[in-house]
Amino acid sequence: MLGWLLAALAALAQGGDPQAVPSPTGNITAPNLSCWKNCGSRASFHCSWSPYGPAGNTSYLLNLCHKKRSQCSRFRAGTMTSYNLTHQQVFIHSNTTAWVEARWGHHVHRTPNLTLTTQTHLIFTVKLDPPPTGIPFTKTGGQLKLWVPRPQCDGLDWPLQWEARFQREGDSGWTQVTCAMVNVTATGGSVTCALGVNGTFKVQLRHKTPHWSSYWSDWSRSISIPEEILESPMLSYQLGNLGKDGQRVLRLSWQPAHKEQRDVNYTLRTLMPGCRCALEDDNDTVVLGQEVTEHNLTLSGAEYQILLSAVNAAGPGPAQILHIPAEHHADLSFKNISVAGGTVMAQWEAPIPGSAYCFEQQTLSKAPKQGVCIQEDFLANSIHVETGTLEAQECHRFAVHSWDPDWGWSTFAVWHHYISNDSLAVPINISTGDANATLQWKPSPRATCPGVLAKYLICHVAKGDNVTYSEVDATASNYTLQNLQPGTAYRVGVWEVTEDSEGTCSTWWHFQTKALGNGRAMWRANLKYLGISLGLPAAAAIYHLSKRRARSLLFPPLPKPVGTKAIQFSNSEMSQGQPRTGLLEPSERFSPAELLLTEPNPSKEMTDTDSQPDVPQPDVPQPSPVVEKPVEVVVCPPGCGEETSFAYRRQELHNPVGSPPPGSTSCSGHPPSEEEEEEEEEQGRQGLHQPLIPIALLISDKPIIIRDEEGWDPSQENLVP
């Protein structure tokens, strides 16, 4: 150990800085020793280092070696990790080398050397104390603003550098940001930190001098930042009427703030734009606690602006502005008013004593302007005279408001005046009926001036009658004349009546009532046209539906007969010089709906000669007299009445009346040969592939058989009577 100290002193004696001497264990720790000028404490310098070895069993030794004096100083710090040095222990005019030794048991650890120069560390190296607590701050739009005082330190570079770190409630990590110092004065400045988010935070601050060798101060204690108030309170109110004492009551209520905003107070401010008198006793700002959500204000008849804002530690939120209009319809009048050209002279009497009063004159179409404030005491029943100016085509308001420390503001007198050379006659629109007429008009600028227009005077007259007068309230914009004569011409007029007018009325506008019946005839024509427009489509729809319904009931569809070959002639029969006719086809062209007739048996005809009528000739077909619905008539050629074709004989379902039985002779007059019979049977087999199904139409007292090969549908044929 002694050898190590001798080596260090030898190095200093040679004029060089002491080098790092290995510890007995051969380890050199990382540089963690720092020394600075302490500002704000009696000790001039302060050195600090990180702990080594077992806690509580390690002792520390601070070594300072001064270059010019070639001597070293040793300071025992015990188990502490810092040591304060006085002016006598530090030579600021000589470079100094410092290191720390940590000892526990037989172990020795030594930090690397730290050189303290006279131009930097011993003069400019400063580490400030942490920022104090209780710094006033505000937070708006994620911007944290703080007002910080200037540290009490001689030769301190100003302004300082600032940093902040914040932590949300419930989070474990910190977010560090750089702050800017603005609005710097000799005593302090404003620090702005961009947090970027809203919510409830814990914020810590630290600062340092601008010199590069200075150290950041330790972090300050946590500052609780509540949630920022971003919305103004939801305000509702009820305004009472102005009483004879010149005051009215305004009842305010609002919603409470959120719990996250913490310790919220409400600031209520009352402003009179027309009378901003600087009165010491006129306290227009009221601060209310968090539990208060209602408040009453006593106001005069003047115009007011009410501002309500919520305030917490983060700062005030946006104000809710309530505009209270001036009272125009008040029963408080001046004692005397005289108007001469554009000048008005108003005389008023004070009902109660006061400390000051305000004479207000406003032009309603323009922005409010400041009234005249007279700050002097006056007695009750005292008379005062005020003068003002008037502008043409404008509505003016004159008022006197008094201030008393016990009663506050109250209104003594209110008066409105309108200067215009316009006619008092009102342009109107007229809509007439047979016994009434409705008059409509737009209020004139004179009518919109409060208290100037007293009423409307309406007069109407018919030719040869007396004039009838009616009065309407000043707020009306229409009127209906009743009990008029139909079809009669009238004259009517609407006039404004003011306080200083004579109330005359002249009938300028002409109209005529409608004659009786015109309206009814018009309604009848409209109803007739409407009936025709709606009746035709309805009748067409009913006809279409009823037609389809009637057809399905009266004319049901007939079933189609199955395709068949009812009659078939052989080649031998067709070779006798007679043309071949088709099924149910007459020799001459007739209607397809004529009756089918057959030739009677000659033997039977000879016996009944007297009772049977003559058979009609083939070229003159005769329809049956009892047939209600004509059918197709087929007449056999001459000499063919005794026998039909083989195919017809094969169908043994129904025999026509008078047809010969099977096995009779044919039209040729001789019985068929065996070859002809075989040929006819073969043809019958080839043509009758499907069974022959007869369709009997009972349209008379005799059955009629109709057959068709192609499936002929009788309902689709055109009937010929």
Please specify the SSE layout and strand pairing.
Elements: H1 2-13, E1 34-38, E2 45-48, E3 59-66, E4 71-78, E5 82-85, E6 96-104, E7 107-110, E8 114-116, E9 126-127, E10 137-140, E11 143-149, E12 161-168, E13 175-182, E14 188-194, E15 201-208, E16 223-225, E17 235-239, E18 248-254, E19 265-271, E20 285-288, E21 294-299, E22 304-312, E23 315-316, E24 320-324, E25 336-340, E26 343-349, E27 356-363, E28 372-374, E29 383-389, E30 395-404, E31 408-418, E32 429-432, E33 437-440, H2 445-448, E34 453-462, E35 468-473, E36 478-481, E37 489-498, E38 509-512, H3 518-554, H4 571-574, H5 602-607, H6 646-650, H7 674-687, E39 695-696, E40 705-706
Parallel strand pairs: 1-9
Antiparallel strand pairs: 1-2, 2-5, 3-4, 3-6, 6-7, 6-8, 10-11, 11-14, 12-13, 12-15, 13-14, 15-16, 17-18, 18-21, 19-20, 19-22, 22-23, 22-24, 25-26, 26-29, 27-28, 27-30, 30-31, 32-33, 33-36, 34-35, 34-37, 37-38, 39-40
